[in-house]
Amino acid sequence: MNIGGGAGAVLSTASGIGNLASSLAARLGGSAASYFEQLRPASYRGVPFVSLGSEAAFGRRNQVHQYPQRDTPWIEDLGRGARRIRMYGFVIGDDVIMQRDVMIAAVETAGDGELIHPTLGRLNVNLDGFRSIEHWERGRYFEFQFEFVEAGQRTYPTAETATTQSVLNAVTGLNVAAALNFAKTALNAIAYGAAVLGTVVNTALGWYTYAKNIVGDARNLFQLLFNLPGDFGRFAGSATVPTFSKYPSSSVQSNQTTQSMIEAATTARANVSTAADTMAAAAAGFDATTVDTFTASVQGVTSAVLAATNDPNDSIRLLSSLSTFVPDAGTTTSVIGTAMGDMQSACSDLFRRTSIGAVAQASSTYQPTSSDDAARVRDLVTDLIDAEMTVAGDQGEDETYEALSTLRAAVVADLNKRGAGLSSIKTFNLPAPMPSLALAARLYRDPTRADDLVAQANPVHPAFMPTTFKALAN
């Protein structure tokens, strides 16, 4: 065999191909060198080889569904298909056997590997097949064939507790348990006559009157501003832009007008009055057969109050005050007076527990501005629950005690989860006053957060921020 002549022929052919490529590139624009400069040296798991070419398959995974008496099928898209790459390469040299053995060790290694493809770049792949081809007449030259499949992370679906729904379920459980314990006490007390039934009316009157009054709270009415589009300054914030202002928005509807808000507020307050009237009627007709109607009307009042408060923070504040209602009327130590006291206590317990459930429901929609804010709301709600658990435990009301315990756990889990991803509040100390823009750029590397700092620090003027203030840590 004339090896020298064969090598000369190969070189001549390669030179001719190079000249043809340069001529074609010149006609189409650019140069052949610009293409080859973009190619990367091929390797697998760090073992280099010369790439002769490759084939790649891309696309999507589709499932064809065909139905009787329907000419066209429905194609269900199941996502992007796995990318498959077939590569051809070679190694050459006096140490070609060692190069092949190193490649064999690489392809027999378990797990995914890194492929450097000349045009696709760096890829994480799994080897599906490898072949090494030897020809005796080619001597120091071994050919390789690879079959690669794109590899991804080994991930599994993770179960995550729907904490908000858990709170709502626990609230429902509390309402059922509170109604059950109320019925047990009330059915025993009403046997002592009309005086006891009158206690229901008087106690209910004081509670639902208080409920009607709190929905007219000045701050609650002021919260209606948050549904108006636009920014009303650091004290009010904006309904359409997220804010860390003193009164953050919770219900964003940019199409609201002043007239529509007045109408909505009027309707909400009217609904509270309607629910209170329903409760008054249920109290007036209270007897052994209408216990369920009365307890449902109590829950209707708290639901109406919750719907009449625009901001969850106000909902928590107002319903918390409703949960501390204490009847004014006293009772005697006589037999009937004791029964009246039991009925009054049972009504008061029912009112408090229903209100606490509404507070917990409001906390599930509250959007904390920081982890500290989430902890504050969590502690406020759990303090109410803890106090009521003590009352239920002292009275031997196991159903209510267990329901309150379940609610407490749900509230803690919900607010801990939603507050965990938020920044904490930090005290900043500065040597001298600075403008809010400069301070936002210095603290957060983001001057657009200047308004957040102004809302948190509450300076006399944004150009002169106080030297000591509390704001988000990051």
TrEMBL record:
Protein's name in the database: Mu-like prophage DNA circulation protein
Coiled-coil positions: none
InterPro entries: DNA_circ_N, Phage_Baseplate_Assmbl_Protein
Domain of life from the UniProt record: Bacteria
Residue ranges constituting the DNA circulation N-terminal domain according to the UniProt record: 39-125
Species this chain originates from: Paraburkholderia diazotrophica
